[in-house]
Design goal:
Bound molecules: coenzyme A
CATH superfamily of one domain: Gcn5-related N-acetyltransferase (GNAT)
Distance between the termini: 20 Å
Helix content: 25-40%
Strand order of the largest sheet: 7-8-6-5-4-3-2-1-9
Number of strands: 9
Number of helices: 6
Order of helices and strands: EEHHEEHEHEHEEHE
Radius of gyration: 16 Å
């Protein structure tokens, strides 16, 4: 796509390619969400978009992508990348920031279809987002928030050497959940970047969209 610069961006890990999806691929991603992101009754996100019926989950994915693109601004952007394994879409990796040129801080979020979890892909996805943030965009720090019970998400952060940055109380519907924010500083990234090799392709064509 000529007139949407982030479409040029690709992040390549040993097993995965992360990039913006075409409309057909976005539909496939929505279908992955329809198939299930977490067990019924478990909450993983402050906005429980992955709860509800399969059709609701799928539509939430599609609308979130359209919203992120429509709302994009250099001082407030959300990059929602589809994750491909052997050309099959399996999940989504987010990187977002507000006032990035001032704060140097970005946030990540991620999810995989349930049947693709627990195979090390989440670690590669996080590595891709961190490489883009630190090496590509020059971030000073990247944060991630996970609910207390979300041991796999927190384990991924631990692997990269995040440090705790506070616990927040969050209402998910009528339930109280503890959200653990963790932060990775540039100095820690320099020793963690060897964990997963990541290639960034096409950033020069879209750098001006981010900063
Ligand atoms: C979170 C998520 C993206 C992680 O992806 P993944 O591919 O499953 O993660 P990985 O396989 O790379 O790594 C998971 C790590 O958690 C560890 N882990 C899993 N369950 C665990 C548990 N109960 N206790 C401790 N560690 C656990 C695994 O051992 C693994 O670490 P290892 O590679 O050192 O063995 C994925 O599980 C997911 O989509 N979950 C549902 C949505 C979600 O929770 N999103 C994040 C919201 S904050």
């Amino acid at each position: 796509m000529r007139h949407w610069p982030p479409a040029a961006l690709r992040l390549v890990t040993p097993d995965l390619v992360l990039r913006l999806p075409t409309d057909r691929e976005l539909d496939d991603l929505a279908q992955v969400a329809a198939g299930g992101v977490h067990p019924d009754g478990v909450v993983c996100f402050p906005q429980p978009w992955a709860s509800g019926t399969p059709a609701e989950r799928a539509r939430n994915v599609v609308q979130n992508h359209w919203w992120a693109r429509g709302d994009w601004a250099r001082d407030n952007w959300r990059l929602l990348l589809a994750v491909f394994h052997c050309d099959q879409v399996i999940g989504q990796q987010n990187l977002s920031a507000r006032d990035f040129t001032v704060t140097g801080e970005a946030r990540t979020g991620f999810w995989l279809g349930q049947r693709f979890q627990g195979r090390g892909y989440g670690t590669q996805m996080r590595a891709a987002a961190l490489t883009l943030a630190f090496d590509g965009l020059g971030a000073d720090r990247v944060t991630s928030t996970a609910f207390a019970h979300n041991l796999s998400s927190r384990a991924v952060s631990s692997k990269f050497g995040y440090r705790p940055n506070g616990v927040h109380r969050v209402a998910v519907g009528t339930s109280l959940v503890e959200a653990h924010e963790e932060v990775l500083e540039r100095a820690s990234w320099l020793s963690a970047r060897e964990l997963v090799p990541v290639e960034i392709v096409g950033l020069a064509a879209c750098l001006g969209s981010f900063r």
